Amino acid sequence: MPSRPARRANEPEKGDIKMNIVSVLLVAALLNFFFLPASVEAYDKPPRILSVYLMPDSHQTQTRQTPSRANLDERLRTVTELAKERCGISDRYTDFSGDQSVEGGKVRWHLHWWDESGTASVSCDDEGYPYQFSCHENKLWEYEPYFAPRVPNNAKSLRDAAQAFLKNALRENEDCRIEFPEKRLNLNPGESVYLRGALLRDGRRTDIRCTLEIDPKAMAVRSFWRSDDWLRLAGTDRPEAVVIDEKQADEQLKSVVRLTLQYVPDGENRAELRYVPEDAGRWTLLAVSGEMYDLNAGRSGEWNAMDTPAQAEADAGGKGLTQAEIAGTEKLKDALPEEKLDAVARHMAELGVIEDYALERLRYRTEGEKVTAQLTYRAELRDAQDCQRLLGAAEEAAEEVFMRLEYGDLFRSVTLDAHTGALLQMDSHGGYCSAAYEFADDAADTAQRNALHFLEKYLPEHAPHMFVCPAVLPTQDGYYNSRVQIRAVRCENGVPYPANAAYLNVNMATGYIDSYALTWTEEDIAFEPTEGIVDEMAAYAAYCEAMNAELCWRTLPAAQDRGETKHYLALCYDLVSEPQIAAVRARDGSLVTTEAAPLRYEYDDVTDHAANELAAYGVGIPGDRFLPDRKITNREAASLLVSLGNPSAWDLDDETLLMCAQEYRLVLTKEDLDKDMTRAELVRAILSMAGYHRAAALTDAFRSSFTDAEIFGENLGFIALAEAMGMVKAGDPGDVFRPRDAATRGEAAEMLWRFLNRP
Asked: What is the mean pLDDT of the chain?
């Protein structure tokens, strides 16, 4: 029998190895028992809230827990049955497919039904609760009048349909507070109705939103979506763990309220003095820990001056030009050529269009009488040295920056006045990486000085009226977030007017202006005088008196897992009011609320009139007074009809109004606009708009109760239809319609309102 080999020094016996393994497992089990929570959904205290998103440790290995593929078919059957019940999906579909996605431990089922009659789809969790739902019906072509507006009489039915769907689609502890503006429903009965609302959890408001699309004919929900679809929840606060009461929360939240005196636009070319809350909605109070939380923390402060423009359209060819085409081409006369525009952009050294950037595209654009030129430049990042020169990366970090680049090319877009070369707009993008940049302590101050110098140099006429607001420091690492946001605001009578401002992003790593845009009102503005206004303390007292702390749910970031942010559902206190307070008027200390926008049409000379009913739906004639007894002109009648489907009908010029009126089958010339419209013409205009003109042309098929019907002529069909619909009434013998008389504004409103409420 062979002898047992000698054990090397420090080599454990096999029995020792077994004992060590058992010991390790036992210790691990005890640690799990004593220190780990029973469930990730049961935090007594919220996870540590970070003021910035943490980037994951690239050296840390993480194992993702993926659900077993076993019995997926059984799970799919169960989920499908639940989703059908929760979304009200019938058994009529002949085809079905379902699949599953798992991302970061978050399971989603994607279910699809279809046949010749239509489709349905659901994205839901393991319990069949939908995050997204849509249903589409394939219908045979149905004749619809061109535009047949009608006052909706189904508001209650719409609300009931929404609530019935939500009752099944939401969990037992969830509800939805639907925003239902009954007086603002669409007058076109064929269009879907969209309802939105805030999700409630255990009766408390959340920052989760729900959207529903309802078919008003079928009274069926066609789509549903909730905004937490993308969230990965790491935990949820427990209500019994709340340690802060409403009184404490109210005091703490109001202690951070700051009001600033500002000029705010108030009507046409007027500015009103108001005390406006700084960073309204910025702070919330964590009800479990009692800490104040900055909701702006961790959010990207990137401000984009403009969207990336689409590619230029192909040039139109043709030898023969009309007068309109010739006039359009004349706008480009004397526009600066490419080489001069390029020289202007490169001469503005602050923009950073250095020799590394090549002009890639030039686009001229006409906007009214103004012609702009947009120059797009591109630079390649080929090595670490390019990262130093173009991104401002430190020498010792340049190689890491280059290796971690996510977007290798840099772009700078400069928009100039094509005739004068004046700078209008600038933006830049590209070269993003997740590497950190280090900046001097005074980098933000230096950026502010650079911004002011830039404005004084390129906006000499505006700069004296501006002051530079405190810079907004970046909150994340990376090239984009080395930019300091700077806003230079117009100042009048020592008070800021934020409606006029210049917006800049100054790159602290390179010193260049990365983006620039200007909003400025050229018209003369009447600024309210600063004498005799209430002081800041009185405004603060009025504001705080109207606000109260409310316990609610918020989805807050907890940490990052491999670049993906995890959230947890936190109980927080917010300062709220109903309606929400937007500001305090400095003139008298009254409150400015954020209620629904005021009616576009409001008249001070009529009450309980059809004109008021129409105004509630955004339909009317421009002006502060309705003047119901005044004769209605073709211009006013056209404005009235066009406002049914065009909210901008308030301020249309004559040419545009005539074009829009023609779309409503009201054919007029410019010479006709100031003529009075007759009663017959008014009836004809309303019914033609709605597609009844073809039926009305069959005059032999109609009879009217009016005694003057013999003079109706070709309008007989229109007047008879109007009578049948209740637009006009003939009850007693001897009633006359008076088709050739001029209609009044009051008669126009009455006829239109009755038409909208027709049987």
From this structure: 80
